[in-house]
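User: I'm new to structure prediction. If I give you an amino acid sequence, what do you actually give back? Let's try with this one:
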Amino acid sequence: MSEVVVKERVIEHSMIPTGDLAIAKRTSNADLLAEERELAAVEKKVESHSHGIAGYWRLFQISRVIAMLSLYLYLDQYELHHKHHQKKAKARMSKALELTRAAVYGERLVQLKQWFFHIFMLLMRRIFVGNSTNKEFNQERQAVWLKEKLIKLGPTFIKIGQSMGTRADLLPLPFVKELGTLVDQVPAFPNDIAFSIIERELGKKINEVYAEFDIEPVAAASLGQVYRAKLHSGQEVAVKVQRPNLEGTIAGDIVILKKVAKFAERFPQLNENADWAGMLREFDVTVHEEMDYAAEGRNAERFRENFKNWSNIHVPEIHWHATTGKVLTMEFIRGTKVTDLEGHLLRNISSAKVNRLLIKTYLKQLLEDGFFHADPHPGNLLVMDDGRLAFFDFGMVGRITPELQSKMIDAFFHVVQKDPAGIAQDLIDLDFLKPGTPHSTVKPVVERMFEFHFNLKLKDVNFKELTYDLADVMYDYPFRLPSNFTYIMRALMTLEGIGIITDPEFNFFETAKPYAKEFMLRREGRDFRRIFVDKIMGRDEGGKIDWNRTWQLAKMAFKTVLNS
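Assistant: Good question. You get back a string of structure tokens that encode the predicted 3D arrangement of the chain. For your 564 residues, that looks like this:
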């Protein structure tokens, strides 16, 4: 969304004085009323897509996509479902044998019906999923179909698809990979509408706020689009404008989705693998956060405060006099994308150093700040000419509680110590198991998987490959991705993708290890000092010193000093 930097030779000729814009010349009361009526008509037209015949047609389109996906997921794991049904049928027959002969006959009729259902499902599975030789090809084809349908359905579903791309507990690996590439592919809306939204939101004529303005947006995405402009002070800015009646569009889609989810509850067999209602609740919260541009501005300022002592990190200044919930005006930053290797070379910038800096910033965000930029794709990160790393687009941020940070540090401890049993327990503690799952059934699976990776040297372990291995385990076994890890996993996988592009020798674990140790030692050391002093001063409130953990920290610190 914030991919506001394009080749300068293109944009230098695209800005014109705002006084020359047709909308700026609308100054009479009649003109202003006409402008309001035009914008209202556009927003009403957008809203009408959720009502009447158009609304029913959209309901059909959405229902079809969800029904096909649910059916496919059910068929993909049909063998597991069939075993479950057989187990229940056996239990019912045992009860029937204890009752009457009529109960037994009744149960046999039910089993006959289930046998026909089983044959029908096997036929459907062969058509949609295929056999062992073409299953992967079919999954990849279905994943592409799903992505294309989500793009066609528009902003709401592009965002849902991006979220689903992190849900390895719901989707097979080919779906996770394909949706992970889903980017905003939405055409720009007309300039006149964008300019009218700016004037309505700011309560001023566009030429009163900006001296010059782009005649075309430099970026368009699902929630809005970005223009380059210039303030009367001469400062160059990026202006982000929300799509007309976006809130109404998303609200209408959510109403339709709730109807579909409620209908799907009648067919629990098709709903077993996907908690559509839970996903919908999660999406409803996150998308409304992302639609609030004023909140995005506050997120940017909080991020800047967290990195105020880092001279190599830059966050664009927010111009609050020209910012509302639907319009965001911020400093326009020139630079190169983090993945533009040729651009870095021309500016004598080390791509590998930029990548290490990026990893270090994220470890600080995750392990220290508990507040992180949740969408670090290349369009939201720029390397400035002086080598500083600039962060953009804070509409999607994640927050981590101190308790979760502590558990994440425990997991890192076990990774460093190459302790697969400890990591298996960490996954349980971090709520990666579906409720009611016996821990004893899954711990050996996780332990075997991590033992394989730990037999490799740390530099040979690829985070994305490990994540994809986890995806297979999470889909085939009773694992789930906790909602508080959705953004974390998305950010980490994106970071590794950037790292592989910018540095052929890049390895996430190898790069992150020294920085993670540094942050962990600092945090744990601070906690240890607090507990120790409280005990000495008689202020102990039940905090216990874990001497084994303290000894492990001491050894880690000693090795760090020796290797530095």
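You can read the tokens as a compact description of the fold. Here is one thing that stands out. Residues 1-11, 535-540 have pLDDT under 50 and may be disordered.
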